[in-house]
Amino acid sequence: MNKRTQFYAFVTLIACGFTSQAFAQAKSCIELKTTAEVEKEVVNAKGEKTKVLAPAGKVVPGTEVVWTVTANNVCKQPSDKVVINNPVPEHMTLVANSAIGAGSQITYSVDGKSFAPAGQLTVKENGAERPARADEIRHVRWEFKNPLAPGAMAIARFRAVLN
Amino acid sequence: MFSARLLVGLGVVSLCGLWAPEAHAVGVPAGTSIDNTAQVTYTVGSVSATATSNTTTVTVAEILDVVVTLQTPSVPVIAGATQQELLYRVTNTGNGPETFRLQMTSVIAGDEFDPVAAAPSIYFDTDASGDLSPGDVPYVVGSNDPVLNADEFVNVLVVNDIPAGVSDGNRGFSRLLADARTGTGAPGATYAGQGANGTDAVVGTTGADSDATGQYLVAGVALNVVQTQAVSDQFGGTRPLPGATITYSFVISATGTGSASTSIFTNDIPADTTYVPGTLRLNSAALSDAVDADAGDFSAAPVARVSVQLGTLTQASGTQTVQFAVTIN
C-alpha cells in the first residue's frame, strides 16, 4: 500500500467512526455515564471526620475505587427493562457484595454469560462446583424492576480495588 | 631437622537466622490506564435499544518502595583481614522503574568493634559470584545508581577491613541503606508528576528507603600439635641405635570458635631414618600407605613424607592422634 492510499483509508475510518457515534447518540433515550471516585477522609464544619467521594485521577495499587454508573432517561417516554452491564475493569478486584442500585436486582458473572445473585455464583474446579471468589467475578449486572420515567435517573455502583 | 606441618583451610562458621523473606512488588505497573465502560439495554415501547457510556480512565500512580535484604547472615573473619564482604540484595518493591541511592555505614552501636570501610566500600556483584571478584564494578553515588524496574533486584557487596586488635567472638556490624531518588518520606507522601510516565509518585509502606545490617564475627581457630616419641632398640632397650625403631605420636587439637576446614597433617620422614611401611595410624586406626579412600598415605618421592587428611576440625572435634614409625639407618 502506498502512502496516498494509506491516507485515504485513515480518513475513511475516522469519518465512519463519527457517523455511527452521532447516529447512536441521536437515537438513544438513555444517557449512560461512568465516574471513578475514591473515598477521602475530611473534617467537616463540626470538626468531625467524614468520608467524601473525590474524583479518582491517579491511584496506587491497593486503592478502593468507587465506580458509579448513572442512566438518565432523556426521552419523553419511559424506558422499560433497563439493564446495566459493567465489566469489572482490568487489573481490579471487585469488593465482595459491594454493588448497589436502588430498585434493581443485582447479579454477578465470572464469564459474562451466566449471571447469578451474590452467594449463588459458582465456578467449576476439578469437576466440582464451588462458590466464586470476589476476585473471579468479572461482570456486574443491574436489572431495574420498574420503568425509568422521562427525566429520571438510575444509579448503579460498585467498588473495586486496584491490584 | 624435624617439622610437623598443618595446612589449614579457611575457618568457616555457620550461624542460622537473620534471613529475610524474598521481597516482592505488588501492584499494577505505574502508568497503566484502567478503563471502564458500562452498557445499558432497555426498551421504549416495543423497540429494544442499547447504549454505551463514556470511558472513564484511572491511571495507576507509582508507588516508591524498596527492600534491602541481607544475603550473608554472618561472615567469619580473622583479626586484620582485609576486603571482607557482606552480600545484600536491593529489590524495587514498587510498581515502576526507580533509581536508588546506596550508602553504607559500619559505625553501629551494639557490636564489639567497628569494621573499617574499604575504599571503595560498595560494589555491584556484577559477576553474580556472591563475593568480591575482579569483575565487580564499584558503586559511585550519583554516577551509577542502580535503576531497577518493578520487582527487579541488584546484588550489592559491602566491603570492610577488620581491625587487628579484635578478639575471638567479637562482632562488627555493617549496614547497607538504599533510598528512592524520587523521594522518601511517610507512607502516602506524594511527589506530583514525578512517577513513571508522568504519574504521581506516592511513597509506599517502606517509606521508600530500607536498610539491612550484617555482621562480621571474629571466628579464630588455632590448631595445636603436641609431639612425643618412643624409641625401642633391637636389644629390648630404648637406645637410639641404628636399626632401632622410633614411634612418633602427634596429638592435634583445635581451640577457638571457628573451624578449620580441610585440615591436612603432613610430616617429612626425618633424615637418616626410614619409614616403616604400614605403621601410619589415625586415632589408633591403621591407614594404608597408598593414596586411596582412607585419610592417610605415605609417599617416598620427592620427599619421603606421611600425610593425613583431618577434614574439618573445631574445638568440639576433640583431639586427633596421628602415629607412625621409622627405623634409624
Please describe what this structure looks like:
The complex is a heterodimer of chains A (163) and B (329). With 163 residues, chain A is α+β, with helices and mostly antiparallel strands. Chain A has a single domain (29-162), classed as Mu homology domain, subdomain B (Immunoglobulin-like, Sandwich). Helix content of chain A is 15%, strand content 47%. In chain A, strands 2-1-4-12-6 form a 5-stranded antiparallel beta sheet, with no helix packed on it. In chain A, strands 5-11-7-8 form a 4-stranded antiparallel beta sheet, with no helix packed on it. The longest helix of chain A has 25 residues, at 3-27. In chain B, strand 3 and strand 4 form a beta hairpin. Chain B is elongated and about 130 Å long. Chain B has 329 residues and is an all-beta fold. In chain B, strands 18, 19, 21, 22, 23 and 26 form a 6-stranded antiparallel beta sheet that branches. In chain B, strands 8-17-14-10-12 form a 5-stranded mixed beta sheet, with no helix packed on it. In chain B, strands 1-20-25-24 form a 4-stranded antiparallel beta sheet, with no helix packed on it. The chains are: A alpha+beta (163), B mainly beta (329). Strand 3 (58-59) of chain A pairs parallel with strand 5 (56-60) of chain B, so a sheet runs across the interface.
